[in-house]
Write a structure and sequence with these properties.
By secondary structure, the chain is an alpha/beta fold. The protein has one domain (2-154): Alpha/beta knot (3-Layer(aba) Sandwich). The protein has five helices and five strands. The protein has a five-stranded parallel sheet. Helix 3 links the parallel strand 3 (73-82) and strand 4. Helix 1 runs parallel beside helix 5 (135-154) and helix 3 (86-98) crosses helix 5. The longest helix has 20 residues, at 135-154. It is globular, with a radius of gyration of 16 Å. The protein starts with a strand and ends in a 6-residue tail after the last helix.
Length: 160
């Protein structure tokens, strides 16, 4: 069974989001060993300078790197990533599963995104479009798309 880690900056604060995440994690447990790693984002002032933002992102990158192993296949979730269809995402997941990769790791940044250090470390960059989403809501979207990918892979009717 493949192992999937989601490294997320920040916690799910709202109960409805926690409930949604729990539901998708329960569903995904039939297909993968799931792990959510929450990292506390660096606190910034109300109107941070670009230098303060860059420093915070680099500090967050160091915390993220400590959670990675050499066997991880890393995907950075960032706006400049490729935008696959659900079928394409499923095919890529199948390639990773069949290729015997170690853990699949998806990294969700903080409100200012991810450091270039993380983006350059990633084997893939993935985007769900040019729109902006909260990192909390995006985690639910990622879990749903991973579940959808497994259902497509098995030929289920979940994906219509």
């Amino acid at each position: 069974m493949i192992r999937i880690k989601i490294i997320a900056l920040g916690k799910l604060k709202d109960k409805y989001l926690q409930d949604a995440a729990s539901e998708y994690l329960k569903r995904l447990s039939a297909y993968a060993k799931m792990e959510i790693i929450e990292i506390t984002p660096v606190r910034l002032p109300e109107n941070p300078s670009q230098a303060e933002i860059s420093k915070a992102l680099d500090t967050e990158a160091e915390m993220i790197m400590k959670k990675l192993s050499s066997k991880d296949y890393v995907t950075a979730l960032c706006i400049e990533g490729k935008q696959p269809s659900s079928e394409q995402l499923s095919a890529e997941l199948a390639t990773r599963i069949n290729g015997g990769d170690g853990s699949l790791v998806y990294i969700i940044g903080s409100s200012y995104g991810l450091s270039d250090k993380i983006k350059s470390k990633a084997e893939e960059k993935l985007s769900f479009g040019k729109m902006t989403f909260t990192h909390q809501f995006f985690r639910i979207m990622l879990l749903e798309q991973l579940y959808r990918s497994f259902k497509i892979y098995e030929g289920s009717k979940y994906h219509k």
